[in-house]
Recover the amino acids of this structure.
């Protein structure tokens, strides 16, 4: 997919969760049958990602409409990023984080983050 945009929920302070020049996803089809999203491989080109948790504990990365299912966040095994920006705002802990990813895809290799399959941590706590 090219020039991808995902909206944030209406309560979030920024309108978009993700904007990326290009997104490639490998998805486990069996996970969809049980109501979850398991991404085996994700590549984001020039992403701008805005993660937010409000004072009531609702988080933009949790895709359960009522924010009651902690398992509603997608599981991502491998994430590759070619340049990008990440902002994280947490009203519960007053945490603010900004990260920039640069110089990622030289000589065909990208900055990569790998999930520990035993932990299955999909998003910030």
């Amino acid at each position: 997919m090219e020039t991808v945009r995902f909206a944030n929920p209406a309560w979030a302070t920024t309108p978009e969760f993700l904007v990326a020049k290009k997104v490639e996803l490998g998805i486990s089809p069996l996970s969809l049958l049980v109501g979850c999203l398991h991404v085996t491989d994700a590549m984001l080109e020039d992403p701008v990602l805005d993660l937010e948790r409000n004072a009531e504990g609702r988080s933009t990365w949790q895709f359960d409409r009522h924010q009651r299912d902690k398992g509603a966040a997608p599981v991502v095994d491998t994430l590759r990023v070619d340049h990008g920006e990440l902002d994280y705002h947490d009203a519960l802990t007053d945490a603010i984080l900004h990260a920039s990813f640069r110089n990622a895809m030289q000589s065909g290799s990208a900055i990569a983050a790998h999930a520990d399959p035993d932990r299955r941590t999909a998003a910030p706590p």
